[in-house]
Amino acid sequence: MKSLRKDKRKNGNKKVLILGVGNRLRGDDAIGCLIADELKKEDGVSVIDCGTTPENFIDKVCSLNPNQVLIVDACDFKAEPGQFKIFPESEIEKIEQNLISTHTLPLSLSVALIKKQVDGQIQLLGVQPGNLNFSGELSPQLKKAKDRIVKYIKDLIKKNERR
After folding, report:
1. Is beta strand 121-127 parallel, antiparallel or unpaired with respect to 84-88?
2. Which of 33, 70, 76, 81 is the most exposed place for a label (fewest CB within 10 A)?
3. 61, 112 Cβ separation under 8 angstroms
4. CB neighbours of 12 closer than 8 A, spacing ≥ 6?
5. What is the mean pLDDT of the chain?
6. At 38, is the pLDDT very low, low, confident or very high (cuts 50, 70, 90)?
């Protein structure tokens, strides 16, 4: 897996922005939002919980001018529930048909609009769902995977900071 790209802004900070995407009422589709909740507790991590409408946060993302945007969302890439994978920006449109379609607009449209104003790298951390019922609960597999994914993202950010 790629580490987050190292860039510095005028103030010397490397800006990484995490976008949690998903529907909290639809089982494992909530994973992006729940991971955003966990990462918001960390100092120095910029996080936006976009819910089902990431397009509503484009102006905020652009105003933060991040070097790196990591979108976390449920995505069916034919793996075991709880597995996750980083998809580069060039693959987001291709994989989009496998995103859990609770978004108002296609994720690739939001990415394209951000890319017009931000010169940072955009990636998708796709998490394989197991349960998409309107239960409001994560499947046992994603409950187990959530902490592992949060740790993975924190490690990526720390690795980026050391460079």
Report:
1. antiparallel
2. 76
3. no
4. none
5. 85
6. very high
Query: Position of tokens 């946060």?
Result: 57
Which position has the token pair 């987050």? 4
The reported pLDDT for the residue numbered 102 is: 60
- Which pair of tokens denotes residue 105? 């607009």
Q: Give the tens place of pLDDT for each residue, 83-138.
A: 999 999 988 877 766 565 565 677 888 888 899 999 889 999 999 999 988 877 99
Predicted local distance difference test score (pLDDT) of residue 82: 97
d(CA 68, CA 25): 28
Residue 48 backbone class (left: φ over 0; alpha: ψ -120 to 50; beta: rest) = beta
The residue with tokens 């100092």 is 43
Task: Dump the DSSP string for the chain.
Answer: -PPPPP---TTS---EEEEEE--TTSGGGGHHHHHHHHHHTSTT-EEEEEET-GGGGHHHHHHH--SEEEEEEEB--SS-TT-EEEEEHHHHHHHGGGB-S--SS-HHHHHHHHHHH--SEEEEEEE--S--STTS---HHHHHHHHHHHHHHHHHHHHHHH-
What is the CATH code for 16-162? 3.40.50.1450
